[in-house]
Write a structure and sequence with these properties.
Length: about 270
């Protein structure tokens, strides 16, 4: 089942279309790489999928209850949080689910066994288990370690980290809650080789759909399963690995160039 189906998306900038007619779908296990020149709208599309920028047309159909997380190049807001607290805030719904479960357990321990209470308890427990159960907090710590942070870093406040470290913290926050759709904008920035290798492995096993933008071609080749190219306001979907898409695009451009050359020769003969 598709986590997201996007149909005929349109985004305008100053009244002119940035992109139009963009359509695709992503299922769990899909890793869709966005391609295109700077200014084509790749980052804008990610933020539109996150609901951070308004689209001027099209439809987004989501899997029921789908959880979405975005990592981009904007630094975290510095509000006195520790690194651990910031990473866990990427799964605010799970924090709320834990709190709701505690309240419901207290109510049941006090004798409240009403059908509505039992129903809410079952639904809340299922929501938490869907994200890995109570172990999701430990997983968030593992993500921080995988991205190069040490245990003493976890209780440091965000204000004490460099810009590059904050970018890594943003990536950890997006991964921490195990979203159903993960949106990644340049995820390998500020990562060393060991962290990139860890991230590639993490994304290969994540039970989610992923839409990503990256300039690291080796990373795109390792992770991507399909390509959506944005150019001149339009989009082309290619189901396959990054290098195959590049080869097919090169062949298509060469064919177009030969066709244009022949047309020019025919015109000269007239």
């Amino acid at each position: 089942m598709a986590v997201l189906i996007a149909a005929n998306l349109r985004k305008e900038h100053s009244g002119d279309p940035l992109f139009d007619g963009v359509s695709f779908k992503v299922e769990r296990g899909d890793r869709l790489a966005l391609a295109g020149p700077n200014g084509a709208g790749k980052t804008t599309l990610l933020r539109a999928l996150m609901g951070e920028t308004e689209l001027q047309g099209g439809e987004l159909a989501w899997e029921k209850g789908a959880r979405v997380a975005l990592h981009d190049q904007r630094p975290p807001r510095l509000n006195g949080q520790t690194l651990r607290e910031y990473a866990l805030s990427g799964a605010a719904d799970l924090v709320a689910a834990e709190r709701d479960l505690r309240r419901l357990e207290e109510a049941m321990a006090s004798g409240d066994h009403a059908p509505e209470t039992l129903r809410r308890y079952g639904e809340t427990q299922a929501r938490l288990e869907h994200a890995g159960g109570y172990g999701w907090r430990d997983r968030a710590t593992s993500v921080l370690r995988g991205l190069g942070f040490r245990d003493p870093d976890l209780e440091r406040e965000l204000e004490t980290f460099s810009g590059g470290e904050l970018t890594r913290a943003s990536l950890a926050r997006a991964l921490a809650g195990q979203p159903d759709l993960l949106l990644l904008d340049e995820p390998t920035n500020h990562l060393d080789m060991a962290s990139i290798e860890w991230l590639e492995q993490e994304l290969s096993t994540l039970d989610a759909a992923i839409v990503l933008v990256a300039h690291d071609r080796w990373f795109l080749e390792s992770v991507g399963t399909a390509v959506l190219e944005l150019e001149a306001g339009k989009s082309v979907y290619f189901p396959g690995k990054w290098h195959v898409w590049r080869q097919e695009k090169a062949a298509r451009l060469a064919m177009q160039a030969r066709f244009a050359e022949r047309q020019a020769e025919d015109i000269e003969r007239l």
